[in-house]
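Late entry, written up from scratch paper. The run itself happened at the end of the previous shift, but nothing got recorded in the book at the time, so transcribing now.
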Amino acid sequence: MKTKTIYIIMCMLVTFVTGCSISYKLNASNIDYTKIHSIELKDFPIRSSYVWAPMGPMFNNTLRDRFADRTKLELVRRNGDLKLEGEITNYTQRNKSVSADGFSAQTELAITVHARFTNKTNHKEDFDQTFTATSTYPTTSSLSSVQEELVDQMTKDLVDQIFKACVAQW
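Output as recorded:
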């Protein structure tokens, strides 16, 4: 009888422990929603002399998605409590390393974005800053075969950097 009681208590304890869980969602934002309700996100045009056309929409959509997914801010066309604007200023590739035979072994692709952020409730958080992301690929691959994947990775990196600069003042 004593073993059966212990067995029942153990089963109940296991059920309770496995049935309950604590969930935390860290979205890396530090926004006072009592003061800040909206963000105005302007399109970032491409101002680089070298251009890959899909890069602009890819960057702008990823930026909008990040703020929509990770904040409660309303995306507005004008007069937002926060305002983010800028441009893609540089898109370049250069030889990164040389192989033993003297030829290029890796090529580095880089995107630079200039962003201006304004917080109407706290101008101490305003910034005018440049962000850069890079990625390398083997020179044996053509840029056209790796470009979409690399630009997607760099866009996500740039959006992370900008998002953290805007709403994650730790």
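The longest helix spans residues 143-167.
(Scratch paper discarded after transcription.)
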